[in-house]
């Protein structure tokens, strides 16, 4: 019998969802590579199909290794449960389609990853779900964009790439006053640095490819829900009879579990973006070291940002943890353990210097990703945000001279050595352009 | 005694064999039917109490807790799926048949009913689901990606 205790973050990162395997005693979580699961009897099968009992039917809906990852994520975010997906984009899709359909509307901050802006403003629009992108994403601006058919507010904890910090508590108040949930993309913070549910967030989404995996290997996403939002008539997908389950009402039958059950039993089942069990295993391994990675990467990022702020070849640094950040109070409130390991800076010589800088790096990897154990660098205007119009780029705060870095676990002195070399090369280009 | 901690709820479930379910429905999409069917399939002896239903899936359903007790003796738990304002009477009936515990499902929070059951020496759980709590400790929630809150390096029997 286990004693009742509120265990700490790192203890839960290691143990939640991953007790020893009851059959084999395996201490590591077994990778259950099986598409299907044998029923105990026809009655057992009928109970599973009608959701009257828990268990596995088919890996598109649930799988033991994937569920272990889901429970660990739910525990770390302080949520009721989680649904894992094949990518971060799929997590956004599952979160939105669980509560919105054609004719509905979402209000989102415009401070988003470029791929998310495109998913919202192009792909969702084609499905008949209209998304209003609000510049700045502040509570008043978001409130003004709410319509009668609005089903959710959406925001990134730390906006990509500008590092804008969302006022989660303020946005939750606005959302709840309108009878809708606040969806928070917590990818850049990870639950180690920020747990939006503690500030009123209702649905948390992640690209688990980033800090959760932590090693740049797995493509994955996850949706976590608090279980605290009261779903009602405003969200008929949850509160009216489901034709797929003989007229069952998710809200009536599953209570606080309604959103999570529908996300799995209808959206994941019907759209199919499930996570591979092997990938779930790698994500479980990643989460075991999340706290120590986040601590080290956040500390190295602060050191590097301070170094760049003093560097003559650097025009500006936008590091959320900087004392000069006008959002300093929000950082203190939402990111007390540090402002993360991703930030942007601009080179004096504009776009040409930014390109020369990236071309001259030896240790930092030039690629489109963040949250790897290795340090990464990218030029957003020509890559991650290149799908955006000039107007959208401006609203997302992406300038032509901007470089984004994701600080990894290398020795910080080596990372600074490499940056200094590349900055020297960039300043030559900038100097030549000036002549 | 009001049971408030996960460990206390688990101990109650572990020693429970017989459940009388007040408000059990024969309608296959009602929450009470889900719990009825779940508990039956996990080894509990479950008997429905519902004056508006003669049977559930062919098994007899009783018009009152007293009638159910006459047929099946003293239950370990009376599980209550009734409107909050109607459960004081259910608590009195549960006390009268000598039930050892009374369990009020999600949203059923009636302070008077809780108090009289507690004072009569019954174990009391409220605003919880027997199915969810059983699943929390026996792997069902874990299988569905739900946060069971269980942290242990012991092998589950």
Explain what this protein looks like in three dimensions:
Chain A has 435 residues and is an alpha/beta fold. In chain A, 40% of the residues lie in helices and 13% in strands. Chain A is built from 17 helices and 12 strands. Chain A has helices spanning 9-15, 42-49, 64-77, 88-97, 114-126, 139-144, 168-177, 190-193, 236-239, 250-254, 258-271, 277-288, 290-309, 328-334, 350-360, 390-395, 412-434, and strands at 81-85, 105-109, 130-134, 150-156, 182-185, 203-207, 221-225, 314-318, 342-347, 365-366, 376-378, 402-406. In chain A, strand 5, helix 8 and strand 6 (203-207) form a beta-alpha-beta unit. The radius of gyration of chain A is 22 Å and the shape is globular. The model of chain A has no long low-confidence stretch (mean pLDDT 94). A 7-stranded mixed sheet of chain B has the order 3-4-2-1-5-6-7, with helices on both faces. Chain B has one domain: 3-Layer(aba) Sandwich (Rossmann fold), CATH 3.40.50.720. Classes of the chains: A alpha/beta (435), B alpha/beta (157). At the A-B interface, helix 1, helix 2, helix 3, strand 1 and helix 10 of A face helix 1, helix 2 and helix 7 of B.
Q: Approximately how much beta-strand content do the residues of chain A carry?
A: 5-15%
Name the chain pair with the biggest interface and residue counts per chain: A-B, 55 and 39 residues
Give me the CATH fold name of the largest domain in chain A.
Aspartate Aminotransferase, domain 2
- Give the CATH topology of chain B: Rossmann fold
The named CATH superfamily of chain B: NAD(P)-binding Rossmann-like Domain
What's the helical proportion of residues of chain A? 40-55%
The CATH C-level class name of chain B: Alpha Beta
Strand percentage of chain B lies at 15-25%
Radius of gyration of chain A: 22 Å
CATH class bucket of the largest domain in chain A: Alpha Beta
Task: Characterize the overall form of chain B.
Answer: globular
- What is the ordering of alpha helices and beta strands of chain A? HHHEHEHEHEHEHEEHHHHHEHEHEEHEH
Q: If you compute it from the alpha carbons, what radius of gyration of chain B comes out, rounded to the nearest whole angstrom?
A: 15 Å
Estimate nothing, just give the exact number of structural domains of chain A: 2
Inertia-based shape of chain A: globular
Helix content of chain B: 25-40%
Low-confidence segments of chain A, given as residue ranges, are: none
Total helix count of chain B? 7
CATH architecture of the largest domain in chain A: 3-Layer(aba) Sandwich
CATH hierarchy: architecture of chain B: 3-Layer(aba) Sandwich
The computed structural class of chain A is alpha/beta
């Amino acid at each position: 019998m286990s004693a009742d205790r509120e265990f700490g973050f790192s203890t839960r990162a290691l143990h939640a969802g991953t007790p020893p395997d009851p059959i084999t005693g395996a201490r590591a979580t077994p990778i259950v590579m099986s598409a299907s699961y044998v029923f105990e009897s026809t009655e057992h099968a009928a109970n599973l199909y009608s959701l009257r009992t828990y268990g596995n039917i088919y890996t598109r809906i649930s799988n033991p290794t994937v569920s272990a990852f889901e429970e660990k994520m739910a525990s770390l975010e302080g949520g009721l449960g989680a649904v894992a997906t094949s990518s971060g984009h799929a997590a956004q899709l599952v979160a939105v389609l669980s509560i919105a359909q054609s004719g509905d509307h979402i209000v989102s901050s415009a401070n988003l990853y470029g791929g998310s802006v495109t998913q919202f403003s192009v792909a969702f629009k084609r499905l008949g779900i209209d998304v209003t992108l609000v510049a700045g994403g502040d509570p008043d601006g978001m409130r003004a964009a709410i319509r009668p058919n609005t089903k959710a507010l959406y925001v990134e904890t730390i906006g990509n790439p500008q590092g804008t910090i969302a006022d989660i508590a303020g946005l939750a108040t606005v959302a709840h006053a309108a009878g809708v949930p606040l969806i928070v993309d917590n990818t850049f913070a990870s639950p180690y640095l920020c747990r939006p549910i503690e500030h009123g967030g209702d649905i948390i989404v992640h690209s688990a490819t980033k800090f959760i995996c932590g090693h740049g290997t797995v493509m994955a996403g996850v949706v976590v829900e608090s279980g605290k939002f009261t779903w009602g008539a405003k969200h008929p997908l949850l509160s009216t009879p489901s034709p797929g389950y003989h007229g069952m009402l998710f809200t009536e039958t599953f209570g606080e579990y309604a959103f999570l059950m529908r996300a799995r039993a209808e959206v994941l089942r019907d759209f199919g973006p499930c996570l591979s069990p092997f990938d779930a295993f790698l994500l479980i391994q990643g989460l075991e070291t999340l706290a120590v990675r986040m601590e080290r990467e956040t500390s190295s990022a602060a050191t590097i940002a301070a170094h760049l702020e003093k560097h003559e070849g650097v025009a500006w640094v936008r590091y959320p943890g900087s004392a000069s950040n006008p959002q300093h109070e929000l950082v203190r409130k939402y990111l007390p353990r540090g402002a993360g390991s991703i930030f942007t800076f601009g080179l004096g010589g504009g776009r040409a210097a930014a390109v020369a800088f990236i071309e001259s790096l030896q240790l930092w990897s030039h690629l489109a990703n963040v949250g790897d154990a290795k340090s990464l660098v990218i030029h957003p205007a020509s890559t991650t945000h290149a799908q955006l119009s000039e107007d959208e780029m401006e609203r997302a705060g992406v300038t032509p001279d901007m470089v984004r870095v994701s600080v990894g676990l290398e020795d910080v002195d080596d990372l600074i050595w490499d940056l200094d070399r590349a900055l020297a090369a960039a300043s030559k280009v900038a100097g030549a352009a000036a002549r | 005694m009001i049971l408030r901690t996960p460990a206390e709820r688990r101990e109650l479930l572990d020693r429970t064999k017989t459940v009388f379910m007040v408000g059990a429905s024969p309608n296959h999409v009602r929450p009470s039917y889900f719990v009825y069917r779940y508990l039956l399939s996990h080894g509990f002896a479950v008997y429905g109490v519902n004056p508006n239903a003669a049977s559930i899936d062919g098994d007899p359903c009783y018009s009152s807790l007293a009638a159910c007790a006459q047929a099946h003796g003293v239950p370990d738990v009376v599980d209550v799926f009734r409107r909050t304002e109607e459960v004081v009477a259910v608590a009195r009936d549960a006390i009268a048949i000598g039930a050892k515990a009374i369990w009020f499902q999600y949203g059923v929070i009636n302070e008077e009913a809780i108090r009289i059951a507690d004072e009569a020496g019954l174990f009391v759980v409220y605003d919880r689901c027997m199915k969810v709590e059983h699943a929390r400790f026996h792997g069902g929630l874990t299988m569905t990606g739900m946060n069971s809150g269980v942290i242990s390096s012991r092998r589950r029997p």
